[in-house]
Each structure stands twice: as C-alpha cells, then as structure tokens.
Amino acid sequence: MTGQQAQDSRQRSDERVLAPPGRRLCDVVENRDAGGYRIFSALDESGPEPRAGQFYMLAAADGWGQRDGRPYLPRAFSVAEAQRADGGVRLDFVVEAVGPGTERLAELSRGEGLWATGPLGRPFSAPEALGPEIAGAILVGGGIGLAPLAILRRQLASAGIPTRTLLGFRDRTRSGGVEELFPCSEVRLASEDGHAGHRGYVTDLLAVLLEGGEAHTAAVYACGPPAMLEEVRTMCVERGVACELAMEAPMACGFGACFGCAVPLAEGGYMRLCVDGPVVDAAQVQTALVAGSGHR
C-alpha cells in the first residue's frame, strides 16, 4: 500500500455520517433493565444510520426544561446499536440514572417522544486504516462505556475482522449490558469486586494481550471512565500500538460552538471532542483525564 493509498483508506474509514439539520422527534419503542443500567430504544423515522462511535444529543419531549431549569440542555449519548427497521432506524442507548437528565431518560416509556440531534462526531476507524499490518481489533470497555463498542463489534464482525472483547466493571450492580449488547460473542470480563472473570481491572487483561508477539497486528478501541482510558492510552502509546479512544466531555451543543468539550493535544493546543472526536487517536491527545466528564 502506497502512502497515498493509506491516506485515502484513512479518509474513507473516517468518513462520518452527517446529521440532518435540526432536531427530530423520535418515538420511544422500548425501555428495559440491563443490570444497573437501562437500555432505551427510539425509532428515528428520517435520520441516517450512524457509524460506530458517533453520538446523539438527546432530550425527552416531556418533563424537560421545567421551571427549576433541570434538566435543560440535551445530553450527549453514544449510540449502542442502530438497525434498519420498519419506518426508520432503531437506535439503542444505554443510560445510568445519576442526575436529573439521565434520570428522566432512564424512565422513558414506550410511546413517549425523544428529541434527537445526530449522528454527530467522528466515528471509529477501520483497523486497516490505522496501519497496513493491522488486521484485527481489541475492544476494551469499562462500565457504561461498553455502549459504543457494541455497535463497533457488530460492524467488525460483519466485515469478517477478528475481534477480542475485554469488558470491566466496578461491581455486580454496575455490570449490566453484556448479555443484551454482546450476544453470542466471546467476551473476557474483569470486575473489581471479583464477582465475574478476572478480579481487578480490565487493563490487566489488555496488558496480557499487548505482551504477545502479535500485539501490533490488532488495533485497540476503548471507551470507559477517564482513568481507564488514560491507562489504555499510556499502555498503547508506550508500546506503539494503534489505539483509538471514544472520549467524553461536557457538551452543551454538539456542534463545536460552546467549547465545553475542549481537550488538550499532545503537541499543544486543543481539540473539540464534539466535532474533532469523540473518537480520537490515543497518541494525539495529551491525556484522557478530562475534567467534568459524565452527563447528569
């Protein structure tokens, strides 16, 4: 592959699905329990099918922007799954109720309306776009960060790309979504309380894989808490392993206007995660420890 061919391949793999103008009212079609989280689904009648790693700005049609002002701004959510369905695209999102915005989204019921803007942001790249020798993928997820990896795993499987999945959780109450989002796939688990799989961190499992002689033939894709992402970033940069992180930062608009999601670059300056991310090259950012990440 020539340098120009590699560049062209990277450009094609990074091509994002653009959001239609304005927000759209979607119908909530399901809301189910997922072991400490909720997975709610909405039917987008006129929007395009997103790529893995892209996100939406969401707000409930009712019970939003009340007199006390909370919740007011929409919340940014990575899409966990997107499938063509009768009448549009069915979008799945994973939520943990930790504040007024997420609590309202977690209690959405079938038939309610959901305002959605998206898909937004830069998606994950294909493995071959990250290096000519890369033919496989290692997915590393922590907690609710497993969401964008679910749609990525399906898309990689559809392309016949060998994939290994590592998921880590703090404890049993925050270990949901595996059966729902990763059906019929081999997944290695880690839990800090030892209730499932390896007792410890998911990065312990990644360290073992990166010690192998074939570590550079697979790209690492990660999403999870900032501390986990920073450990993944450091491990991969030090070893020269191709790695992309799906990061999170406070967002008010999703279009780059508010600069609330600016993160420092390794070579100086800043990038806005909503338009230059949320998927970033691990070697490009100075740190994954973004202050204020998490949406409430």
Task: Please tell me about this protein's structure.
This protein has 296 residues and is an alpha/beta fold. The chain has helices at 3-13, 100-106, 147-158, 178-181, 202-210, 226-239, 273-276; strands at 24-34, 37-44, 55-60, 75-78, 81-85, 88-95, 113-120, 136-142, 163-169, 187-191, 198-199, 218-223, 243-246, 262-264, 270-272, 279-281. The strands form three sheets. It has a seven-stranded antiparallel sheet. A seven-stranded mixed sheet has the order 11-10-9-8-12-13-16, with helices on both faces. The longest helix has 14 residues, at 226-239. Residues 1-13 have low confidence and may be disordered.
Q: Which terms summarize this structure?
A:
296 residues; alpha/beta; 7-stranded antiparallel sheet; 7-stranded mixed sheet
Task: Set down the secondary structure blueprint.
Elements: H1 3-13, E1 24-34, E2 37-44, E3 55-60, E4 75-78, E5 81-85, E6 88-95, H2 100-106, E7 113-120, E8 136-142, H3 147-158, E9 163-169, H4 178-181, E10 187-191, E11 198-199, H5 202-210, E12 218-223, H6 226-239, E13 243-246, E14 262-264, E15 270-272, H7 273-276, E16 279-281
Parallel strand pairs: 8-9, 8-12, 9-10, 10-11, 12-13
Antiparallel strand pairs: 1-2, 1-7, 2-6, 3-4, 3-7, 5-6, 13-16, 14-15
Helix pairs in contact: 5-6
